Amino acid sequence: MTHPSLGRRTLLQAAVAAPAGALLSAAPAHATSGGGNGRYDRDSPRFTIGVLPDTQYLFDEDRSDPAPLRQTFRFLTGDERESRNIAFMTHLGDVTEHGTEDEIGLAGDAFKAIDGKLSYSVLAGNHDVRSSTDDQRGDSAYLRVFGPARYAAMPTFRGASPDGYNSYHVLEAGGRQWLVLALDWRISDKGLQWAQGVIDANRTLPAILTTHDLAWADASGKAALSQYGQRLWDTLIRRNDQIFLTLNGHYWPPGRTVLKNDAGHDVHVHIANYQDRYYGGAGMVRLYAFDLVRNVIDVETLSPWLLERDPEDRTPLEAENLELTGPVDRFSIDIDFDERFAEFAPRPLPPARPAKAVMPRGTVAYWRFDAEGFAGAGADGAVVPAGSVVRDLTGGGNDLTMELLHASAPEALKWSAEHHEGQPAHASLRFDGGKNPDRGAVLRSSAAAPINSMRLESGYTIEAFIKLPDPFAGDHAWMGILSWEGRAGDAGKTSGWSPEEPTCSLNLSPERFLQYVVYPTDRDADPTSWSHSLPVGRWIHVAVVNDARRTVVYVDGSKIARNPTQPSKGISTLGRPFAIGGTQFALKYGQGYYGWIGDVRIVARALRPREFLTPYQ
Question: What pTM was computed for the model?
């Protein structure tokens, strides 16, 4: 690597004959990343890629000291690998200072500590090979040690260019595959053709491009393409929408920027290089923690070698350099992965499932709004007329009839094709409840429906899919999602907030806190669960689980914190209707439901999360 103010050094290596051979094949397509120990979860939505920039000052003739790098390798393959779910490591070039056989050999020996434990890529920097040459330079000490043969046994390795200086890996992480291109310090036209061929052959894979020289940064950390980087951008990166992240070393200080490719999408361009810091960077590694749930990549930079030291024994320089927290060393980037990759790798959604496939033992009611359960299913946005019936698909006689509340306009309830991605029925109803004017719609069971009197004393599970609009432009008053309409006072309950409160209801507060309140059959009490503030614009799965002793509410498969320890057995139903979308109590003190509701299911036993309508493991 080179500081932008310094000229490139001329190295001493001489090129010899180029290796023969076409594109190398490696592990079969189904192979997984991780080397031989398998200590990471390839299906977890959270995983980490380690990035090692220029280590050249650790391999510098008789001044070499591999100890920091060896500690970094122990960090990446030890306990941290499992806790951080480290899937892969990539080196950004300038492994050594002069590229001599001794330096390269010493570096190769250091890398043996990671061989068979964690898959990785390495690429040549200008200090590893003769800097005036490109990837057609022929044989070199670097190629003999860090050529394709080194990666052949790695399950991620897929091949190398005929010259051996460019390679690619496919790693499995986050439940999908990712392409990592490791390109030489100076790629030739032949190399570019090879790289384009790799991308063309893997058109559905998001790609991370690694190379030694691509961008440099000013003192503020703002990055810009180098002259060579501009060539790589124009001929390869901007044309291929799959490339969403580029990583390079060579220059210091570190920096980053975001560029727009020809598809109008972001490409994150990052520079990492710490050779100018204490002890040649002290084996610093940058960790890219991908979180496909939060849609973010969290980046941090640290030196495992310095972190290992006893804090009381660290010198001031060691303490200063063990972890970097500046804006170009520790940061997060927001990426909606599904949206960013949609044009070349749309994520397949689970297919709709028939009702009979999702009615386990004990199901007492199941309502859904596709054609299987609702004759009014039709065009997206179509008004659902008053009197429409939603069938109870268990055949138990708990059909629901739509009623407009007060003087609500017919548009208070519409059919929608929107749905939670894991929802069995790919349909929902859009409720337009509000307080000013007082409006809404409700789905209500008949006076004789069995559900009205079910006490469910052996346990129960109530599930529903909901989505709040973004922006949440209603009146932000209390909303009823579903309830049994019998009044607590009529059930002889005196402990609650009001005798008019339903004996069982699932509600939403003005602050978007989910509330489940139930008056059990065996005591004068109203155990109440409270969630966190629910997000807007996103489908949510809610499950209320009672095991005849206590009640636990789950949001998206996760148990919420504010579940009461108070005993709770059954529901004090009084033969009054069951309702979805709005209750008389909610209307008196708040408003009709505002948002979407998908499938609703009631099972007369406590289900485990893996048995929910959306499976959570």
Answer: 0.79
